[in-house]
């Protein structure tokens, strides 16, 4: 299947401005017991999550992600660093203002991008341009992903979904306050070692690669940056950060495009970073775009 040409927002030319336009109180014994058990479970879960425990459901690996807060968006210092490299333009202002966001519920995040085998096992086809069972599925639109989710969720009681844009960035930063998030042993990922963590324009040979081929970030997630762009739940709104709630934000107001994050194998260190935002119409199919799953706990 031939890939559709990139839309305005999907322009993959590095630096192209169009890429952007593109204490609860105890009252009664029964509730008290229940709440103690629940609180204990949540604390145990949080501890486990902080250690990055993995779980597998329906043949898909997940990492336990704890509730928490982080600074979403690009800070003054991060913007200054990009400006110094001439890697910031007016369209990047959609990443601002930065604000502290709370992710209120623990959830599960796909350890890898969804592979072509996983897609075929559920959908029976494989639309990818770059064929390979362990490569990320590409050329699936946001709407195609909704059909995949409906079929996958019909297999059992689980609730698989796309991550929200906020959940995605929370996971990509992995506890870091630096430009590229934290990598192995919680050390900062930098422009000069990003290639250890992400398939970029500089080493991809212009195609996708099997998932998990690069190092995981500090939370055990692979390929959050690079390889394929990843669809998120939200509608894309360049001005969302100025008006968005700070607890579990998600833009549910219909717009023209859906959010995609992380950059692709065709981009470089200016765009392949946790704060970079872009979108595409939900019908867009492109060899640059795939997705990963989230799962409610
Ligand atoms: Ca990716």
What can you tell me about this protein's structure?
Helices cover 22% and strands 15% of the residues. Strand 1 and strand 2 form a beta hairpin. It has a 5-stranded antiparallel β-sheet with strand order 1-2-5-11-6. It has one domain (52-295): paralog of FGE (formylglycine-generating enzyme), CATH 3.90.1580.10. It has helices spanning 18-21, 29-50, 76-84, 116-123, 142-154, 165-173; strands at residues 54-57, 60-65, 68-72, 99-103, 107-110, 160-161, 229-235, 258-261, 277-280, 289-290, 294-296. It has 297 residues and is α+β, with helices and mostly antiparallel strands. The chain contains 6 helices and 11 strands. Calcium ion binds next to loops.
Q: Approximately how much helix is present in the residues? A: 10-25%
CA-CA gap between termini: 36 Å
Q: SSE order, as H and E?
A: HHEEEHEEHHEHEEEEE
Calculate Rg over CA atoms.
19 Å
CATH H level, superfamily name:
paralog of FGE (formylglycine-generating enzyme)
Number of domains: 1
Give a nutshell description of this structure.
The chain is α+β, with helices and mostly antiparallel strands. It has one domain (52-295): paralog of FGE (formylglycine-generating enzyme) (Alpha-Beta Complex), CATH 3.90.1580.10.
Secondary structure elements and pairings:
Elements lengths: L17 H4 L7 H22 L3 E4 L2 E6 L2 E5 L3 H9 L14 E5 L3 E4 L5 H8 L18 H13 L5 E2 L3 H9 L55 E7 L22 E4 L15 E4 L8 E2 L3 E3 L1
The structure holds calcium ion.
């Amino acid at each position: 299947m031939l890939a559709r040409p990139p839309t305005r927002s999907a322009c993959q030319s590095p630096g192209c401005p169009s890429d952007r336009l593109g204490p609860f109180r105890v009252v009664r014994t029964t509730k008290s017991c229940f709440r103690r058990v629940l609180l204990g479970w949540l604390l145990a879960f949080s501890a486990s999550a902080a250690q990055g425990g993995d779980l597998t459901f329906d043949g898909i690996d997940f990492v336990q992600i704890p509730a928490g807060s982080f600074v979403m968006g690009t800070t003054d210092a991060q913007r200054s660093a990009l400006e110094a490299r001439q890697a910031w333009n007016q369209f990047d202002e959609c990443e601002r203002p930065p604000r502290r966001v709370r992710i209120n519920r623990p959830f599960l995040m796909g350890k890898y991008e969804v592979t072509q085998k996983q897609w075929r096992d559920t959908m029976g086809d494989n639309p990818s341009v770059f064929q390979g069972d362990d490569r990320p599925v590409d050329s699936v639109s946001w709407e195609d992903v909704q059909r995949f989710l409906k079929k996958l969720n019909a297999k059992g009681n689980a609730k698989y979904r796309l991550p929200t844009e906020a959940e995605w960035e929370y996971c990509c930063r992995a506890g870091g306050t630096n430009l590229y998030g934290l990598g192995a042993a919680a050390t900062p990922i930098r422009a000069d070692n990003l290639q250890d963590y992400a398939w970029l324009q500089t080493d991809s040979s212009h195609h996708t690669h099997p998932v998990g081929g690069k190092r995981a970030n500090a939370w055990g997630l692979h390929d959050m940056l690079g390889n394929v762009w990843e669809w998120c739940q939200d509608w894309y709104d360049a001005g969302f950060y100025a008006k968005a709630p700070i607890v579990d934000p998600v833009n549910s107001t219909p717009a023209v495009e859906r959010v995609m994050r992380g950059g692709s194998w065709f981009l470089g260190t200016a765009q392949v970073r946790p704060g970079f935002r872009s979108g595409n119409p939900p019908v867009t199919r492109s060899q640059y775009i795939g997705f990963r799953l989230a799962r409610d706990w």
